Amino acid sequence: MPLTWEDLAGRALARQFPAVEGREAAAVADTLARVGPVQSQTARSPFLGLAARLPGVEHGAIAAAYDAHLVVRGSNLRGTVHTSTAADHALLEVATRTGQRPLWARTLRLEATSLEQVWAALEDHAREEWRTPAELGEHLRAWIARHDPGATPRLEDTLGRYLAFGHGGLVRRPLTGGWEGQGKPVYRTATALLGPRDDALGDPGTTLAELVRRHLARHGPASRQDLAWWAGVGLRGVDACLARLGEAGATEQAQGPDGRTYHDLTDAPGPVELPGVRLLPEFDALMCGYEPSARVRFATPEHLARLWHQANGLVDAPLLLDGRLTGAWRLAGSGRARRCEVRWFAGTRRPRRAEVEEQLEHLQRAYPVEVTALDVTREQG
Q1: At 221, which CATH number?
Q2: Around 57, how many Cα atoms within 13 Å sit in the side-chain half-sphere?
Q3: Does residue 366 share a domain with residue 243?
Q4: 270 assigned to some structural domain
């Protein structure tokens, strides 16, 4: 029987809001192992996302998970920053090497060396100590000049400067301030902190298939287009992974409401309802886990257009109400004392003030702010 958008939403919510025991650092890692990587170019996003999915977790437990390398932050999928478990990081690196390879090749324009040699040189430079972006950029320029003098890299523009610290084999931490802040980052080689990658790079096909399996476990059902968009790799590579999983009897298929084929694990949980309010972070997985046209499982196209500003790529922090994205919210002001402003879209249920206040209690335990005022208003249009 074909799946409806409601079916797809309910099945995804069952995975994205798991019941996890405990609220210590290990529970933080367990939650991220179940829900998957959190897009984190906004440093507060993992703290807000965990407040919504692990209610009652304290800020100190999340910071402790980072400090103990139970969870790590690095540039990987689609060249964006993600927080993931240490176990996921090696898989994300393989996807990044696969998906970002054309971009690196066009930018570095190597002649006598390979991208593998460049990546190894960056990892060697950051193996023993934390490096700033400027130090990594200078090392990359000097290494290419010395080992590949015929190359004509473009490293002076924004993209070129990014490549030095955007390698998926590095992890990052704030140079000063807490993990929830936007302080300047420094970078270190992942294997120096997390141990060897095992055979992740030696057999990328197997590694990518495992990454696809994990994505289905956390976000499924998903189409091949969803998987390719999320991982930042081509459809051909995704198809090979899905074929491998299908031959092993790990997945099943059903037609979706948009005519696409949706894949899921054979032992996937059934759909659930999620009543009440959740205050989600910018770039939450309910949006970034799926190709843009398939996000209608959680919201109407009109509401999605209000949340995702295509002109600059920014996303408003979504309001999840009864399992649907029906508004947005923000913490106004600066400093520790903040005003919370919640707006819901016309034509949807108004979030009750008590529902929002309950979520704000969880948020203030996970993220170091004090909400001193709350506005709940309807957005016209």
Answers
A1: 1.10.10.10
A2: 32
A3: no
A4: no
pLDDT tens digits in sequence order for the chain, 381 residues long: 799 999 999 999 999 999 999 999 999 999 999 999 999 999 999 999 999 999 999 999 999 999 999 999 999 999 999 999 999 999 999 999 999 999 999 999 999 999 999 999 999 999 999 999 999 999 999 999 999 999 999 988 888 888 889 999 999 999 999 999 999 999 999 999 999 877 666 688 899 999 999 999 999 999 999 999 999 999 999 999 999 999 999 999 999 999 999 999 999 999 999 999 999 999 999 999 999 999 999 999 999 999 998 777 788 999 999 999 999 999 998 889 999 999 999 999 999 999 999 999 999 999 999 999 999 999 876
Q: What is the DSSP letter of 131?
A: B
Give me the domain span that covers residue 222.
Answer: 206-265
pTM: predicted TM-score of the whole model, two decimal places: 0.95
Structural domains of the chain, count: 3
Both 259 and 334 in one domain: the answer is: no
**What are the backbone dihedrals phi and psi of residue 298, each rounded to the nearest 5 degrees, phi first?**
-115, -10
Cα–Cα nearest to 379, from 350, 352, 344, 349: 344
**141 lies in the same domain as 289:** no
Which residue is associated with the tokens 């992740």? 200
**CA–CA distance, 306 with 304 (Å, rounded to integer):** 5
Task: Give the pairing of strands 337-345 and 370-379.
Answer: parallel
